Amino acid sequence: MAKLTSSLFLVLLLVLSMTAFLAQAAPFEQVGSKKIIQLNYYLIEITSGPNATLVSVAGIAGKLWAPNTFGTIFVGDNLLTEGPSTSSPKVGQVRGLVVVSSKDGSANYISSSITFTNREYNGSTLQVQGTFNRNSRQPSLLSIIGGTGKFEGAKGSAFLQTYSSSITMSITRIIYKIELYK
């Protein structure tokens, strides 16, 4: 169990540097006929303990289901906040899948749906997918492949990067900063 928790921490720390979003929406910028919106939020992920928000659900038989084990599948239901703290105002939820998709365990495929609950974007969603390289210190670039509500027909990019991580009382908390461009 300790080995799984430790491995899960490392994978989630480096794998999901994706799921933290922008703290404030920047003003609209007009580029040709397209509007560009920059959002900065933080994804709060808890990888262990009774309130875990990311858990392994499947993997290769006979192998440890861990963040760096090829074939391991995780599901997540993570908090999206304005700032890098659980006490920051909530702006939504990030729900989706993470699959360890490279044999060496360094790359993870991510597919997530971001549901906004803040006033400006309440009820709107963004769909994000792509590959996160957990061994890189650089932000990973993910694709925005659609949306609903105020983000209907959205296309663009999301940058995912680990903001911070901590282990307290057997709970691993990872915070990701996500920047979205529509």
TrEMBL record:
The keyword Zinc-finger does not apply. It is found in: Secreted, Extracellular space, Apoplast. InterPro entries: Allene_oxi_cyc_Dirigent, Dirigent. Gene3D superfamilies: Allene oxide cyclase-like (2.40.480.10). Transmembrane segments: none annotated. It comes from the Eukaryota. GO terms for biological process: phenylpropanoid biosynthetic process. Keywords: Apoplast, Secreted, Signal. Pfam families: Dirigent. Its main location: secreted. GO terms for cellular component: apoplast. Residues 1-25 form the signal peptide. Homodimer. PANTHER family: NUCLEOPORIN-RELATED. Belongs to the plant dirigent protein family. Dirigent proteins impart stereoselectivity on the phenoxy radical-coupling reaction, yielding optically active lignans from two molecules of coniferyl alcohol in the biosynthesis of lignans, flavonolignans, and alkaloids and thus plays a central role in plant secondary metabolism. This is Dirigent protein. It comes from Rubus argutus (Southern blackberry).
